[in-house]
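Bumping my old thread because nobody answered last time. Still need a sequence for this structure:
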């Protein structure tokens, strides 16, 4: 399939404009996820969104190797988990990922969250780590310098961020030696993040959109009673009817029309196929893009409660909603 590509300004490398997710939301086993990646590769996906914390890189590595697809045809992303921030750990972590994925280099390595805060796998929403900390720029820069070193060493071709806000990127960009080429962020019709999206695009940073379908099977801890269902939103349904497609396809066409690289996840061949096809033809009209703007209700799904530090009043503090990064005195150096 002729999947469109986005050219990376700094290196001329080409990122496929749609990828496949590999987070099993705590209920898809690593073997099942590897089988999904195998199906995705056969269908023509070449952009795979992996992460250390998804605990399935070994199984995915076997699939990549067995596929026989030339390395240069693949775009493989992975992410540094929160327990491996810091100068010493970054190199250790990427080498573990490379060994599991059976690769010599990654196309993109992201800092998964801008905090070194982690939680036990499959934990519930009230789990708090007593060592959790707010974003401390000097500490983040120690991790970022180590990420930059990986590019120098040829272990990764590009580096990027994930779950960063505009306030945090405004600190990182003037201080970095190697710029992030992408920010992976939650993006779907009911959560369009217009200010952050415009900002990253103006800065030449590619927005990679996670949970592009509204993550219908996300973990319990990321589910709130008031959450809106993207694939049932009237504007999405109306456009889907006009195009005679499933609402999932409209979520992905919306992403593509807005310059976002979506990374939908599916275990089903039928869904993997229609997701890939959705960005390859029958685009949304300008009027439909405008109609879908109306679907935005600022409905963040992955709120990140489990990353909160002691003083944080609630999850909104993770996202610098008033453009302020609050660091209580006891964390200052
Ligand atoms: N950077 C981060 O912090 C971060 C956070 C969250 C996610 N991610 C990445 O983003 C990827 C995607 O996000 P996500 O998995 O949360 O959510 P998503 O892609 O929005 O939704 C995935 C769910 O949608 C269903 N689905 C897929 N295609 C469909 C279709 N055509 N019609 C109907 N249902 C369909 C899948 O079920 P079936 O298996 O039944 O098709 C699956 O349960 C993840 O896998 C991960 O790689 C990154």
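Sorry it took so long. Here it is:
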């Amino acid at each position: 399939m002729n999947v469109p590509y986005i050219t990376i300004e700094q290196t001329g490398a080409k990122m496929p404009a749609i990828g496949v997710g590999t987070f099993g939301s705590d209920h898809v086993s690593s073997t099942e996820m590897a089988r999904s990646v195998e199906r995705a590769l056969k269908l023509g996906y070449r952009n795979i969104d992996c992460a250390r914390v998804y605990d399935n890189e070994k199984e995915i590595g076997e699939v990549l190797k067995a596929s026989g697809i030339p390395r240069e045809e693949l775009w493989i992303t992975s992410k540094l988990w929160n327990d491996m921030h810091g100068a010493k750990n970054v190199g250790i972590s990427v080498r573990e990922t490379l060994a599991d994925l059976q690769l010599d280099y990654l196309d993109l390595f992201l800092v998964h969250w801008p905090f070194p805060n982690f939680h036990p796998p499959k934990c519930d929403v009230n789990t708090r780590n007593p060592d959790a900390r707010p974003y401390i720029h000097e500490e983040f820069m120690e991790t970022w310098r180590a990420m930059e070193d990986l590019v120098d060493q040829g272990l990764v071709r590009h580096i990027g961020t994930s779950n960063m806000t505009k306030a945090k990127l405004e600190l990182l960009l003037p201080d970095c030696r190697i710029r992030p080429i992408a920010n992976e962020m939650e993006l779907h019709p009911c959560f369009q993040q217009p200010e952050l999206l415009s900002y990253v695009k103006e800065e030449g940073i590619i927005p990679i959109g996670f949970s592009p379908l509204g993550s219908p099977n996300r973990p319990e801890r990321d589910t709130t009673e008031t959450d809106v269902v993207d694939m049932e939103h009237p504007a999405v349904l109306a456009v889907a009817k006009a195009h005679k497609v499933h609402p999932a396809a409209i979520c992905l066409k919306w992403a593509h029309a807005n310059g976002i690289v979506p990374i939908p996840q599916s275990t089903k061949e039928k869904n993997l196929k229609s997701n890939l096809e959705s960005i390859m033809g029958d685009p949304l009209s300008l009027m439909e893009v405008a109609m879908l703007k109306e679907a935005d209700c600022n409905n963040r799904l992955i709120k990140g409660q489990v990353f909160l530090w002691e003083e944080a009043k609630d999850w909104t503090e993770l996202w610098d909603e008033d453009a302020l990064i609050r660091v209580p005195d006891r964390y200052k150096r």
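The mean pLDDT is 96. Let me know if any region looks off to you.
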